[in-house]
Known about the structure:
By secondary structure, the protein is mostly helical. The chain has two domains: 266 residues, no CATH class; 106 residues. The protein is 67% helix and 4% strand. The strands form two sheets. A two-stranded antiparallel sheet has the order 1-3. The longest helix has 34 residues. The chain is globular and about 70 Å long.
Amino acid sequence: MSPVRMVRTVNVVNLCFFGTLLLVSLTALPWYAMRVGISRAEWGLFLAFVILTGCSITVGYHRLFAHRSFQAHPLVTLLNLFFGAAAFEQSALWWSSLHRDHHRYVDTERDPYNIKQGFWHAHWGWLLFWRSAPDYSNVKDLQADALVMHQHRYYLLWAITAGVLVPLAIGAATDHLLGAFLLGVVGRLTFVHHSTWCINSVCHVFGRATYDIDATARDHWLVALITNGEGYHNFHHRFASDYRNGVRWYHWDPSKWLIAAMRWCGLARKLYRTPQHAILAAKAAAEHQRIERTLGGQRVTEGPRLLELVRERYATLKAALYEWERWEKEYRRLRETLSEASQTSLLTLKEQVAAKRLACREARRVWIALLTSHPLLARAAQV
Length: 383
């Protein structure tokens, strides 16, 4: 059975809370902006809390607590719990329990925000018209953390202090109390909530399936832009333990950059990275599957010849990836049991790994050259 029990009923508290936030954001906030104007201090407060609370959800709640993608210094844990509570998305324990169920039971009745039940259900209907009652059996690792459990037990105290009292105190100190409430609390919460929920809704309907064409999860650059990199959702569902969501260097993923910076400062360690050969294998498999399904279902004169060529080149690429993976595993195994006598063997293995990596890159280059050489293949593979 799923650790979370979903009961269909109107969640009056959530309906009133989230509904009021949205209503005030669409009425009182525009009125205030037109009649009073928004100062630099108010914009600064809004942006600061959007970044702090948003990153505490993406870096903290999601990648640190839900997926254990890295290990963090207690100070980092405390800050993520504090500003994560300020986002008013429940405790880290509750959030992580439901999110782990989302990955385990994705697109089934046991998925808390199942996209198969509709776009708006996945966006916020699961919060408004359902009650989630996790038993927390899937987050026993988090229950061993005293800070996580304190935040869970006294969640409202943490949330009100961090998410309401602190921004109001800053607003009062700068003589912008009303602006701090409307923009720094209400507007900020509305933006962070709906941008976060877009990952459950938009990223399971729109975008590109780069690594798994059968998954509903999609990579969506715009959602990544407003959620600190969380929009590369197809990659995330394929490689959930990776501390990165945007795996390419040019992907907008401030969360991965922050985690990497914390490692450089000694505040984070054991960052999990999916091996490059596994990522390339998943991407090539997705491209190959698209071509097989597209050309296999069409009566095209060139179809059989193209399919034969695609299968041949794909087999070559798979073999190269397998060799890279095999030598990489052997190199890591020997490195972990390193002794002075094995230094020469380690150096030899390292050279073999480098050679296999180059061979794989060449096979990938030939594969992409084939896919881009014919319009039909390029459209089918979406390269």
